[in-house]
Design goal:
The complex is a heterodimer of chains A (about 130) and B (about 170). With about 130 residues, chain A is mainly beta. In chain A, β1 and β2 form a beta hairpin. Chain B has two domains: about 60 residues, no CATH class; about 80 residues, no CATH class. Helix content of chain B is about 45%, strand content about 25%. Classes of the chains: A mainly beta (about 130), B alpha+beta (about 170).
Chain lengths: ~130, ~170
């Protein structure tokens, strides 16, 4: 394995959690962060025809949650946020006795409901994907 | 280093060597009695000084030769990944930090900002540039080698475009 790649994904638990083949023996610690990448097509320089390297496709950033001797469990740490929603309420006082004297008045209330933050799932993570330290 | 050795072992190098030999022999002929007998220790001293000087000069030549030219201030994409909206460029030290870059479309020798992008991932020999904002200059993301040749990526973005970028970021938050 190239020096750039620290370990490999050996098991996919769910879309947020995977197992990598590096543990206590490779000095992996809880809380350590890694980048998971899949290897895509090989890039060739169109001018020199030199084979450069394989394109790394980012699966996501992960943090170590559990360490065993030869393996470690890692979980996605990237957060995605749903967009804010705007609610506009219009309250009309038509039909009210007050309206007969003062005229109709509408009250418009605008509230912004902040979007929710949630952990981003790892994108298309597979067994064999590479782990990079950062 | 190749450049230096090429110049050294050329006709110019040969004429320089002949000239230097003539100069040294003239100096020696003028000031030194070549028939005189000298102690070996003087010979060793001269040989030691000459060797030291040659080694120092070789070291200076090597250091100068290993100095690299500054990286180009722009790059042409060598590949694009339309699904992920990514341009791939050759590794260039001007792009290795996480920075906002401008992708300019070149038409009739005029550059127009086509995309605002960010450095997405730095690999050993290539850098991935992820498109963040489409300025609607091009109808679709360039994919063919001819289209890619007309795209220039620079680590320079106009202030107005940065403001637009910041506005979009604010809206996304």
């Amino acid at each position: 394995m190239s020096d750039r790649y620290f370990a490999k994904v050996v098991n996919v638990q769910d879309k947020y959690t995977v197992v990598i083949n590096a543990g206590k023996e490779k000095d992996v610690k809880i809380g350590e962060k890694f980048l998971l990448v899949g290897l895509g097509e090989t890039i060739i320089d169109p001018d020199t025809q030199e084979t450069l390297e394989q394109l790394e496709i980012i699966r996501g950033k992960v943090v170590v949650t559990h360490v065993q001797n030869k393996i470690a469990t890692v979980k996605s740490i990237e957060v995605e946020r749903t967009s804010d929603t705007k609610e506009i309420k219009k309250v009309s006082n038509k039909g009210n006795a007050y309206v007969a004297f003062m005229g109709a008045q509408d009250t418009v209330t605008e509230t912004i409901k902040p979007g929710e933050e949630r952990i981003k799932p790892l994108e298309n993570v597979n067994v064999g994907d590479m782990v990079i330290k950062f | 280093m190749d450049r230096i050795s090429k110049h050294l072992f050329s006709l110019n190098g040969a004429s320089l060597a002949v000239g230097a030999a003539g100069f040294v022999s003239a100096i020696v002929g003028m000031f030194i009695d070549v028939n005189a007998q000298i102690s070996v220790k003087w010979l060793i001293l001269v040989a030691w000084i000459s060797t030291s000087l040659v080694l120092i000069l070789l070291k200076i030549i090597h250091d100068l030769a290993s100095e690299k030219a500054p990286p180009a201030p722009y790059e042409n994409p060598i590949r694009s990944v339309p699904d992920d909206r990514i341009f791939v460029i050759r590794r260039n030290e001007n792009f290795i930090n996480s920075i906002i870059v401008g992708c300019y479309s070149q038409k009739d020798e005029v550059d127009r900002l086509a995309y605002i992008a960010t450095v997405h991932l730095v690999q050993d020999k290539i850098i991935q540039i992820k498109i963040h904002t489409d300025m609607k200059v091009l109808p679709s993301l360039p994919t063919t080698p001819d289209e890619l040749k007309n795209i220039i990526i620079r680590p320079v973005v106009p202030v107005s475009a940065i403001e637009q970028f910041a506005q979009k970021e604010y809206e996304n938050e």
